[in-house]
Structures are given as structure tokens and as C-alpha cells.
Design brief:
The chain has 210 residues and is mostly helical. It has a domain at 2-93 and 156-209. Helix content is 78%, strand content 0%. The chain has nine helices and no strands. The chain has helices at residues 2-12, 18-39, 46-63, 72-92, 98-119, 128-153, 158-164, 168-179, 186-209. Helix 3 (46-63) packs antiparallel against helix 9 (186-209) and helix 5 (98-119) packs antiparallel against helix 6. The radius of gyration is 18 Å and the shape is globular. The mean pLDDT is 89.
Length: 210
């Protein structure tokens, strides 16, 4: 599932704009996780449904200016990536040792990555900067991030885990405000209220359901 997420994601962004790719990815993740929860017999409180709709509406509002009609190839690849990440997240809810499981997941993805590498050999361009960025963003940042995510999943329901991920674009946007002096726009403020409010409704709804 980790490979099913990472490989299509990488190739999808060769043809997709940032906003379009994010919208397809997060939409696929939400649908995958919520549908899986329903098929497993989970019933969502009406507040959870309201929270999901509110948070996703805020996300759409945030990325909308960068959205354009996607090419079919990019759409299919990013949808596949979203399904992969949704299933990878669901599998992580049963993790007893997040660090060991994440390490093992990365190791098991290597054979698939090697096969893909061989298939794409003619298109490959290698540089020292690219190798450095691949290691730091993949093995270090993603590896640690996925470990923490598996730890967090222990205390989240599937619906909570699905919607809380919509906070990522907001965190990234405020990172831009803090570190590269980007401005806080009205769009960012409204989207933040909708997304965080939606997450709050999902958490509240799950508690009431419990």
C-alpha cells in the first residue's frame, strides 16, 4: 500500500497542477476510508457526516484557485495514490510498533521500487541534489512522519483519521506564513475555520456515538 501510494503520486504530479492533484488525492483518501468504515459496519453520527462535509468544503475552497481540468492519466494515477494511502492508513490502526512497522513497510516497498526503476531507466536523470532530496524527504521526513501517524492512529477512529488529514494543507499554508513570510489571506482564514471546525464536529460526533 505504501508503494501504491508513493509511486503513482510521483508520476501523477508530472501532469497535474498542485491544487488539482491535492484535491484528487484527498478526495480519494476520504472516499476510501469512509467507504471502508461503512463496509466494516461502522455507523457515523450525523455530526460526523456534517464535519466531513464541512472540512472537505473548506479544503476545496482553499485549493480551488489552483484547480484545472486534469488529464485522465494524472487523474487515474492520483486516485490510485489516494486509495493506496487510505488503505495504508487503515492498516496502520492495528500497529503495535509504529517505528518497526514503518521500517518494514519501507523495506518491503524496495523490490517494487527497483522494478519501477528498471522500467523507467531511460527516462531517469540522476543528480547529487536529487539523491540528497530523495533521502531527506523520503527516508527521514516521510519515514518519521509515517511513524508518528501510525502512533496517532491508535487513538483515532477511521472517520477521525480520514478527516484530520485535511488539516495538512492548513499546516503547510501557515508554515509558509511563518517561514517564508507569506501573507494570511481571507481565503486561508475561512478555509482554516471550515476545516478545523469540521474536524471538531467529527471528533464530537464520534464521542457522542461512542
Amino acid at each position: 500500500m505504501l508503494f501504491l501510494y508513493a509511486a503513482p503520486f510521483s508520476f501523477a504530479y508530472l501532469t497535474l497542477d498542485t491544487g488539482t492533484g491535492a484535491l484528487i488525492l484527498f478526495g480519494a483518501v476520504q472516499i476510501t476510508m469512509i467507504l471502508t468504515a461503512l463496509l466494516q459496519g461502522s455507523k457515523l453520527h450525523y455530526l460526523e457526516w456534517a464535519g466531513l462535509v464541512t472540512a472537505f468544503s473548506g479544503f476545496v475552497y482553499l485549493v480551488l484557485p489552483g484547480v484545472s481540468a486534469p488529464p485522465l492519466e494524472g487523474f487515474l494515477l492520483m486516485s490510485m495514490a489516494g486509495i493506496g494511502w487510505g488503505l495504508y492508513t487503515i492498516r496502520g490502526k492495528g500497529s503495535q510498533n509504529p517505528l518497526a512497522d514503518t521500517t518494514f513497510n519501507f523495506a518491503r516497498a524496495v523490490p517494487f521500487a527497483i522494478l519501477l526503476l528498471i522500467a523507467a531507466l531511460k527516462q531517469m536523470h540522476v543528480s547529487s541534489t536529487g539523491i540528497f532530496l530523495a533521502i531527506t524527504s523520503g527516508a527521514i521526513a516521510s519515514g518519521l512522519g509515517y511513524t508518528i501517524w501510525y502512533m496517532a492512529l491508535r487513538g483515532l477512529s477511521t472517520s477521525q483519521a480520514a478527516v484530520v488529514q485535511l488539516s495538512v494543507p492548513i499546516i503547510a499554508a501557515f508554515g509558509g506564513v511563518i517561514f517564508v513570510a507569506e501573507s494570511i489571506t481571507m481565503r486561508l482564514t475561512i478555509a482554516s475555520v471550515l476545516i478545523l471546525g469540521g474536524i471538531g464536529l467529527v471528533v464530537l460526533g464520534r464521542n457522542k456515538h461512542s
